[in-house]
Design a protein that fits this description.
binds zinc ion, alpha+beta, 3 helices, about 90 residues, 3 strands
Length: about 90
């Protein structure tokens, strides 16, 4: 028995369980990083500024053209930042 007490420690075991439950219940925010463009007019297909709406591949949420473009630029910014962080030497 004693070695288990040492292994898990004695601090706030109940709190730890509650925190885990909260984590599971909380919604996982979708970054909407993969938006699919849709065009109402076939003639406009391929024109980024004529997109009628976007849908998110991950969560199927629908966005207007303006919203979609903002989300995509935000996603691109996130990628750029994380790549910059990776490029920076962690040691030295
Ligand atoms: Zn999404």
């Amino acid at each position: 028995m004693g070695f288990l007490d040492k292994l898990f420690g004695r601090k706030g075991d109940r709190q730890t369980v509650r925190a885990k439950e909260d984590e599971a219940i909380a919604d996982i925010a979708c970054p909407h990083g993969s938006l699919v463009p849709h065009w109402d007019q076939l003639g406009d297909m391929g024109k980024t500024d004529a997109v009628s709406y976007y849908t998110c591949e991950s969560c199927d949420q629908r966005f207007s053209g303006e919203q979609g473009q903002r989300l995509m630029s935000e996603a691109a910014e996130r990628v750029r930042v994380s790549e910059e962080e990776r490029a920076q030497p962690s040691e030295g």
